[in-house]
Amino acid sequence: MSVDEKIREIVTRIIRKEDIDLNSTATFKEVGADSLDIVQILVALEEAFDIEIVDEDLKSVNNMKEFVTYIKSKVAEKV
Amino acid sequence: MNEMSLKGKVALITGGSRGIGRAITLKLAAEGADVIINYFRRRSTAEVTAQEARDKGVAAHIIKANVGEPEKIDSMFDEIEEKFGRLDILINNAASGVARSALDLDSRGWDWTMDINARAFLLCAQRAARLMKNGGKMVTISSLGSRLVLPIYTAVGVSKAALEALTRYLAIELAPQGICVNGIAAAAVETEALKLYTSEQGLPQLSWQTTPAGRMVQPEDIANVVAFLCSDESAMIRGQIIVIDGGVSLAPIGYTDTKDDEGG
Question: What are the φ and ψ backbone dihedral angles of B103, each rounded to 5 degrees?
């Protein structure tokens, strides 16, 4: 499973929606995620990729597309 | 309390890397205890706190685990058993919660909060008691929200009430094993978590900032009492919840020093 596919699997499973466009400029809130969803997504991604997501970094992440880019950059740092 | 009263003890502090947990970790380390710091997400923060503990001359070990998940608790205690073979002190500090009013609270938010704040202590205490072969101490960190009604604090408040009740039950059940179980109920403590709670919810900060004692409760205020409850000097305190609030719960609307008129 590619990094993109794994991110999609985690996000859709936790938000409980299949039709989420991870390339969109929509925010998590706009696709129906609440604060608990976001925490659970962060925890699941950290475990899946063995990365540490820095909450302060997320302050400059404005939408789903930027979020995926950020996660992929953290995964790339591990390689 | 005697200097280094906890020398040679092994202490697990859940959520021990930052805020109140960090202050407890460093206080127990200063009293001579080797510390096991459980953390949820920030390894780098846990490593910093562990080094601060080591600088006090004790051993420090970090374990990542979401205590809301039973299998993670089991893995954590498997590691403790393997590495240390025993445990003398359990500090149940890790907490989380969904900030919503009762009518907006869904079952996911309820379960998340209860699992981390209340069920985790049950599961940790079960495993810890087996490792406390020569007796031990358990201290739970609660809050005034267990008995007072605070804005959007429903899930956390109820979970803390459960935690306090569990503290009492375990105090009696574990007394024959020489294990003392007590808790602390703190007023708002000046931490990053409090800033998040107040700023995100748009709550007024002023009411948190003063107490009859003249200042907010600090993490170190909690840590000092935890250290006392972990010492032999508190051996006859069982199943009690010690309130640390600078008196604010006794004078919730404020109190000013007024003098009676003569003859009044």
Answer: -75, -15
CA torsion sign for A32, B65, B37, B52 is: negative
Structure-derived torsion over alpha carbons of residues B194, B96, B15, B197, reported in degrees to the nearest 10: -10
Averaged over A31-59, what is the pLDDT? 90
Q: What is the pLDDT of residues B116-133, one digit of tens each?
A: 999 999 999 999 999 999
Mark whether B153 is an active-site residue.
Answer: yes
**How many residues are listed for chain A in this entry?**
79
Rg (CA), chain A: 11
List CB contacts (< 8 A) between B44 and chain A. Answer: 52
Q: Which of A36, A43, A52 sits opposite B98 (nearest CB)?
A: A36
Size of interface A-B (CB pairs under 8 A): 17
| CA–CA distance, B196 with B214 (Å, rounded to integer) | 23
Q: Which residues of chain B have pLDDT under 50?
A: 206, 263-264
Q: Radius of gyration (Cα) for chain B, nearest Å?
A: 19
The predicted-structure confidence for B13-62, as pLDDT tens digits, reads as follows 999 999 999 999 999 999 999 999 999 999 999 999 999 999 999 999 99
Q: Which residues pair with B143 in a beta bridge?
A: B186
The pTM is what?
Answer: 0.90
State the burial class of residue B140 (Cβ atoms within 10 Å of its Cβ: 0-12, 13-18, 19+). buried
Q: Which of B18, B41, B105 should one mutate to test binding to chain A, selecting the residue with the greatest count of A CBs within 10 A?
A: B41
Query: Sign of the CA dihedral B17, B23, B27, B28?
Result: negative
Q: What is the DSSP letter of B249?
A: T
